[in-house]
Amino acid sequence: MLQPCRRLTMIHSRDHSMQNGNGQMPRTPRRARPGLQISGKSPYGARTMDRGLSILQCFTASCPSLSAHDLSLRMGVPPSTLYRYLATLEAGGYLESDHRSGLYRLGLRLVEHAGIVLNQIDARLHALPELEALADEVQLNSNLAVLFDGDTFHIGYAIRSYVPPIYTTLGRRAVAHCTALGKCLLAWLPREDVHALIAAKGWRPCTPNSIQSIEALDRELNAVLAQGYAVDREERHRNLWCVGAPIRDRSGRVVAAMSASGPTRRFDGENLDRI
Length: 275
Prior knowledge:
Mean pLDDT is 87; it is low at 1-5 and 12-32. The protein has helices at 7-13, 47-57, 68-75, 79-91, 108-118, 122-138, 180-187, 191-201, 214-227, 269-274; strands spanning 65-67, 95-98, 103-106, 141-148, 151-158, 173-174, 230-233, 240-248, 254-263. The chain is of the alpha+beta class.
């Protein structure tokens, strides 16, 4: 059992014995960079499979329902062709349609698959009890994320009724360098890979406090490496701070990150040190 008020620190330090001679944890090996790949079309993918998956990827948190006309425009596929794909996806439970509005939305079959995926993530299974304990201990919300497609990808959380819920949707994505979780996930990657990620996806600032230069990003990630944790100072949401720490596997590789988040006023000097 982790000691009170030290959960975030201990997650970072429980593999201290694996540090190298310079007192630093080994960086992610060049051949293993989970979550850094940016989605694109596979040169080996069958066209039918590719189109079906592309339809599913049209649905997002900001656009959860789409008409066949919307999908036709986004896909660049004639409606007559598109309807065959929609009918197949709906029959398999991957899409649902509202016959009154004519809108499609993602189906429950995807939830079934999502549950299988979540239960296969070892870091999540081990971290869930710690999320609850951390939220109780510091009286803040706690969050768990991995790096996926270059973004922070939320796979767990524990909320408390007295703290505004922000990251409360499994599968929610966020710009990695704008979050404490993401900074932890980026800091131990080869720096050239992080720069390539920014070049490919852009800065995508969320607030005026969001990092928007390579120099500032490098300074921030160097600070994370030195202190072992990251801080989001209203960089993702206004009036919200977050403190995160990396989670490592037995080899010392960073595989996930955990954080505590809440209103800015809860992160004054003494409270920030305690967290």
